[in-house]
Amino acid sequence: MNRNCRAAVIVAHNEPLVIREIPIPELEPGALLVRIAVSTLCGTDVHRWHGPLPKGDTLPIIIGHEPCGYVEAIKGERTDILGNPVTIGDRIIWSYVACGSCYYCSVALQPCICPHRVSWGHQRCDQYPYLLGSCAEYMYVPPSCLIIKVPPDVPSTLAAASACAFRTIMHGFEKLGPVYAHEIVLIQGSGPLGIFATAVAREHGAKCILVIGAPQSRLEVAKRMGADDVLDLTVVTAENDRRQWVLENTEGRGADIVIQVANNMAVPEGLNMLRRGGRYVHIGAGGQATIPVENLPQEMVLYTIRSGEPRHWLQAIDFLASRKNNYPFEDIISASYTLDRVNEALNAMASFQIVKPAIVFE
To answer: How far is CA 199 from each of CA 223, 228, 312, rounded to the nearest angstrom?
Structure first.
C-alpha cells in the first residue's frame, strides 16, 4: 500500500482548502484503517473553516467528521457494538472516544462532556495518527472507538450523515422522552438536523410538526419528511410575526415541545414560542445570545444536547434502515462532490444552497 493518501486540509481560515499527501500511520493494537467511501459535511465543518477553532486546536487539520468506509486493516481482533467480529471489507461507521475514567464518564455517566473526549475533524494532521478527519482517502480508527456495521440497504451517504447529525437527534429525543399524541412540536432550523428531527418527531407520534427555517428548498424537504406546516424566516422577518404564527397553530398556547437545531441566537425566540410547562431541546450551537431569565415559561424543562453516545450511532443507522420506505432520507443529501471539489462543497453549504453535501470516494 502507498504510505500516503490524499486529504482536504485547512491551512488557513477562510482560504481555500489544500489537497495534501498525508502519511498513513502504523496501527496501534486494536486500531483500524478505513478506506473512506463517503464523508458528508455539516455546519460544524463550515465553522471550523471560518474559524476560530476551539481553544487548544490549531491548524493544519483535515476537515470532516462524518465518515463511512470499508475496513482496510485491523491490528488484532475487534468486534462491533453488538459483539460481532469486524473483518476486512466491512462497511462501518464508528463512535467518538471518551476516556472512560473521569468523573463524567465513570460517575455521572455523561461521556459526551468528558474533558478528554476525542472527536474528528479538528486534530492536527502533521502529528500522529495524522488521519483523524474524514475528507481523506483513509481514516484512522483509534482502539477505543465502538464500531457500527452499516446494513446493505443503507447508502454510504446516509450512513455518513448518521455519524453526526442523525445520531445527535437520536440523543436529543432520548433526553426528551415520550412525545404524546396531543403534543405540537416546533423545530427551529431546516438544515440536516432539523429535517431529520422532523422525521423522528413524526415517528414518535407528534400531533403536529411546525418548522421554521430557510431557504424554501430546505423547507420543502422538511415537508416531505413530515412537517405539517413551515415558515420561511427570510420571508417572515419579524420575530413577533413568527411568534404569532406559532400561537395561531397552537390555540394560543405555544408549542408543547421546541427543538432548536439552528444556533444559539435562536434560543431566546424559541423560548418565547414555548408554552408554559413545555419542553425545550437545545442542540444547535454557534453564536451568542442572552436569555432573560425572568421571561422563561413557568415550569418549563430545558435539555441541552452535545453530540451522542455510541448507542446513538446505532440508533441512527437502525432508524434509517427500518424506515427507509417511510421517509425520503435521500433528499437530505442534495449534492455529491469529488475530493478535488471540496471547496465548492463547503461554499455551497456555507451559503445554504444545498441541504447536505457528500464528498464521495467510491
So the answer is: 10, 11, 16
Evaluate if residue 138 carries a pLDDT over 80. Answer: yes
Other Cβ atoms closer than 10 A to 303? 16
Cα–Cα distance measured from residue 42 to residue 46, given in angstroms and rounded to the nearest whole number: 7
Q: How many domains does the chain have?
A: 2
Q: 109, 78, 72, 77: which is closest to 90 by C-alpha?
A: 72
Domain-embedded: residue 175: yes
CATH value at residue 61: 3.90.180.10
Model confidence over 246-280: pLDDT tens digits?
A: 999 999 999 999 999 999 999 999 999 999 999 99
Q: Which of 222, 26, 266, 273 is nearest to 131 (CA)?
A: 26
Q: pLDDT by residue (tens digit) across 67-82? A: 999 999 999 999 999 9
Residues 281 and 195 in one domain: yes
Mean pLDDT score, 328-357: 94
The residues, ordered by sequence, that sit 6+ positions from 139 with a Cβ below 8 Å of its Cβ are: 33, 34, 36, 67, 69, 120, 131, 132, 133
